Amino acid sequence: MTFSREILGWYRRNKRSLPWRNTRDPYKIWLSEIMLQQTRVAQGLPYYQKFVERFPKVEDLANASEEEVLKLWQGLGYYSRARNLHAAAKTVAYGHQGRFPDTYDGLLKLPGVGDYTASAIASICFDRPEPVVDGNVYRVLSRFFGVTQPINATGGVKYFKTLAREVMDGDHIRDYNQGIMEFGAVQCTPKSPDCGVCPLRSGCVALQKNTIDSLPVKLAKTKVKTLYFNYLVPVSPEGKTWLRQRTGKGIWRNLWEFPLVETPKEALIDEVRGGLADFPQLGNAVNVYRYNENPIVHKLSHRHLHTVFWVVETHDGFEGGVSFDEADKYPVPVLIAEFLKTFKNSYF
DNA sequence: AACACGGGGGT
DNA sequence: ACCCCAGTGTT
């Protein structure tokens, strides 16, 4: 029994029922693949349902505003995926007459579609014999074949791609690719895989050598930095506030937030008062006070954001003010969304 | 080659 | 606290 036959057999017996498993529509497959980049199925699933309902066809997505796309994406993270999704939808709808490319090379040209996603769409929708190599595949291959090359070094990436191509079943690529990923997600898990009932146990090098827990090998990632965020929460006499859109290329690009004062360490109230000068709309502040006693530590994969919200009550209204209910219509980071929820309940 | 980019869930 | 997740794009 070959590796690929075992994978196909296991997949037939164990595959989960997922909405994108019942279609070859490249729009739906593409949508699911973008959403599942660095994202668990359980987290992406409700977003997939929302997007398919609101945007049944790629033209619907192409014709939406970026604001709406980001709002629907809110909470899923890695927001460049949403911006690229929107851009790619426009390309497909208006540059390719609504048809997705049906080759690896063609798909790879779409923004947000890299090696993995191009291979996934080409194989699942068009039966192209392209191997997928995602986090699951790295784990399964490294363990079964006992590969100790780091999965996140240039040489390792090439090695695993070549190995994946050698052991795939090009005649059943659609099920094989989904099968090896599903096998990694369900059976060959990162922690405590149940090797006792694994159909591949007799041929698994790592199991034989007792190296399951040390595979795959991964180079250390860069360490987390701590940043100090001070959000100024304007409140006018009419109870309105003020949001602005983030620009540039850092985190949360194009999402909305309160005026932000970033400091090298935790700020004192006088520093925050000084920061008001950067925002002319807040020049008539009559009262500034700290909202949360202890900083909220919002954890991203590469940043810890120590955040304090400062309520800034003004004497007059300001240009561009919105009510706190209207604020919920804007795409905002989870950090801001959670603040809005508690603040509305406590302040008013 | 190294880093930026979110948020949630498991251990 | 650390790891991982159906990775991609930029520097």
UniProtKB/TrEMBL annotation:
Matches recorded under SUPFAM superfamilies: DNA-glycosylase, Nudix
Annotated GO MF terms: 4 iron, 4 sulfur cluster binding; 8-oxo-7,8-dihydroguanine DNA N-glycosylase activity; adenine/guanine mispair binding; metal ion binding; oxidized purine DNA binding; purine-specific mismatch base pair DNA N-glycosylase activity
Record keywords: 4Fe-4S, DNA damage, DNA repair, Glycosidase, Hydrolase, Iron, Iron-sulfur, Metal-binding
Family matches, as InterPro entries: A/G_AdeGlyc_MutY, DNA_glycosylase, Endonuclease3_FeS-loop_motif, HhH-GPD_domain, HhH_base_excis_C, HhH_motif, MIG/MutY, MutY_C
Catalysed reaction, written as an equation: Hydrolyzes free adenine bases from 7,8-dihydro-8-oxoguanine:adenine mismatched double-stranded DNA, leaving an apurinic site
GO biological process, any: mismatch repair
Pfam family, one: HhH-GPD
Coiled-coil ranges from the UniProt annotation: none
EC number: 3.2.2.31
Cofactor note: Binds 1 [4Fe-4S] cluster.
Cofactor names: [4Fe-4S] cluster
HhH-GPD domain sequence ranges: 35-186
Family: Belongs to the Nth/MutY family.
Protein function: Adenine glycosylase active on G-A mispairs. MutY also corrects error-prone DNA synthesis past GO lesions which are due to the oxidatively damaged form of guanine: 7,8-dihydro-8-oxoguanine (8-oxo-dGTP).
Protein name: Adenine DNA glycosylase
Native source organism of the sequence: Pseudozobellia thermophila
